[in-house]
């Protein structure tokens, strides 16, 4: 069904950190929302570029040669193959992600943070 | 170069209506921003789904069987092949678009609103 999607209402349904939820699908990709807080793991995606849009708070993404600060209202695209580690400065941060459907959010790394069956909300 | 992109600052560079500007690229798709006002034309995209995120104002999308209202903070995905006509209620509306690079924003229709060489900002 073609309908409008209220991003804020979708965020209200998210209760876990670092667990992206799917809100839409287009051209073989998922639009996902996540609440994140604290540290994530170093990883990369061999074949997929990844888009992060920050809706609330400030996201930091550490690369091997620098750290990029992405405040609310900004976005960043991480090209395939580039090692990165998202984290927040202790605050809860709301992000929108866009990436191919088959991707694992932890990329080339499987650990306790890896969620393999993403849910729609 | 991997860097943060300030969405608001990009909008400030847009001076024409219905003329999407590219701000990013991932997985063969462009992330685009546009300011729109008034009526657009009926069209569809044979092979590409299209994502609209509304950043300011209220976007309306007319379909053959209904009209969907998409206010600020909401998004809509128009599946490939579905005829649609975006418009605004006279106000200036700011949208983000995500669609494959090779797409024409007027889809299967070429008219005076068609912009064939989209610019990066």
Strand coverage percent of chain A: 35-45%
Radius of gyration of chain A: 13 Å
Q: Give the largest interface.
A: A-B, 35 and 35 residues
State the order of secondary-structure elements of chain A, H for helix, E for strand. EHEEEEEEEE
Structural class of chain A: mainly beta
What fold name goes in the CATH topology slot of chain A?
Answer: Jelly Rolls
Report how far the terminal alpha carbons of chain A are from each other.
15 Å
For the largest beta sheet of chain A, what order do the strands appear in spatially?
2-3-9-4-7
Number of distinct helices of chain A: 1
**Percent range of helical residues of chain A:** under 10%
Largest sheet, strands/sense/barrel of chain A: 5 strands, antiparallel
Describe this structure in words.
The structure is a homodimer of 121-residue chains. The first copy, chain A, is mainly beta and 121 residues long. Chain A is built from 1 helix and 9 strands. Chain A has one domain (7-100): Jelly Rolls. Helix content of chain A is 4%, strand content 43%. In chain A, the strands form 2 sheets. Chain A has a 5-stranded antiparallel beta sheet. In chain A, strands 6-5-8 form a 3-stranded antiparallel beta sheet, with no helix packed on it. In chain A, a hairpin with a 2-residue loop joins strand 2 and strand 3. At the A-B interface, strand 1, strand 2, strand 4, strand 6 and strand 7 of A face strand 1, strand 2, strand 4, strand 6 and strand 7 of B. Chains A, B: It comes from Chitinophaga agrisoli. Chains A, B: Residues 38-93 form the Cupin type-2 domain. Chains A, B: This is Cupin domain-containing protein.
């Amino acid at each position: 069904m073609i309908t409008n999607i209220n991003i804020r209402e979708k965020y209200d349904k998210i209760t876990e950190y670092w667990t992206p939820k799917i809100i839409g699908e287009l051209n073989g990709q998922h639009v996902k929302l996540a609440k994140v807080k604290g540290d994530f793991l170093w990883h990369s995606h061999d074949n997929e570029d990844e888009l992060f849009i920050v809706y609330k708070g400030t996201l930091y993404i550490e690369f091997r040669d620098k750290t990029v600060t992405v405040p609310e209202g900004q976005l960043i695209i991480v090209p395939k193959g580039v090692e990165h580690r998202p984290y927040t400065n202790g605050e809860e941060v709301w992000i929108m992600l866009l990436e191919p459907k088959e991707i694992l959010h932890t990329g080339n790394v499987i650990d306790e943070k890896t969620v393999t069956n993403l849910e729609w909300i």
